[in-house]
Fold this sequence. Notes:
This protein is mainly alpha-helical. It has a domain at about 1-30 and about 280-365. It is about 80% helix and about 5% strand. It has helices at about 15-20, 35-65, 75-120, 120-175, 180-200, 205, 210-225, 230-280, 300, 305-325, 330-360; strands at about 10, 25-30, 280-285, 295-300, 365. The strands form 2 sheets. A 3-stranded antiparallel β-sheet has the order 2-3-4. A two-stranded antiparallel sheet has the order 1-5. Strand 3 and strand 4 form a beta hairpin. The longest helix has about 55 residues, at about 120-175. The protein is elongated, with a radius of gyration of 30 Å. Residues about 1-10 and about 360-365 have low confidence and may be disordered.
Amino acid sequence: xxxxxxxxxxxxxxxxxxxxxxxxxxxxxxxxxxxxxxxxxxxxxxxxxxxxxxxxxxxxxxxxxxxxxxxxxxxxxxxxxxxxxxxxxxxxxxxxxxxxxxxxxxxxxxxxxxxxxxxxxxxxxxxxxxxxxxxxxxxxxxxxxxxxxxxxxxxxxxxxxxxxxxxxxxxxxxxxxxxxxxxxxxxxxxxxxxxxxxxxxxxxxxxxxxxxxxxxxxxxxxxxxxxxxxxxxxxxxxxxxxxxxxxxxxxxxxxxxxxxxxxxxxxxxxxxxxxxxxxxxxxxxxxxxxxxxxxxxxxxxxxxxxxxxxxxxxxxxxxxxxxxxxxxxxxxxxxxxxxxxxxxxxxxxxxxxxxxxxxxxxxxxx
Length: 366
């Protein structure tokens, strides 16, 4: 409507009042919102899987390095790797199942969304927000499930390690004459685990300072070996290993938690951007029956650029998420997700402003 020369006449006050009350008179010109949302979800799914792929490569490398350990920790590490691998597989299965449920829900709701779009913008928004809420509900349930599973895994892992470490110590006691060598082997193995965590996990992002603190245990064990106190060195190395194993589990949990929060925020944002793009141009219907007339209008024109400003806000959040993929903490991602959720009602407010601006002008094309 902007930029075109038209002849205008006043709309009767009764018609204005009726239009203000009938939200169905305002509709999006673009009717491909369901397709846009499907595309957003599929793209988010692919990107999520790409972020998970390096975790499998990491696991394979750690398994290979475990084979080169020299002390009794080797068997303990093998069992730990098996339990972690099982947990990762369960996590990926849960993610795929969640994605499948979301996709099925969107397919089932496509007809309702298309119908809502025909009925009017308010119905479209209501249906869209229900889809978004269901999507967030899926992620929350997945987070709760993984948290419960990790709590169980950590408990089982600690119990298993305590039993296995007792056996390692018992074996050392039987070989008193080789204690110095056994202490050196155990220290070397624990250092390997420390280096793995330092190399493979974003420990400063998810547990700042923790790994550096555990380095002191290794230095103490080394000092004890140099002083000829093998028993103390073994005890230091043993405790440091147990602490490292706990830290590794915690990092695995926080990493998966971050992945879920990040993907939820990213998908919410991309869905919102898709909805905005689908509503840049709308149409309004004036009159009834055979006298009804429709005309299209650019939303941004009737809200003095507010839609463009809104898009800039969303683009800024998109840039923050992209740039911070390797640096944002879980709390920062959650905060961005909350900002995105808080911005969802804004599009409805902008569309209402556009409608009232048009009706308030009391003009229509003749």
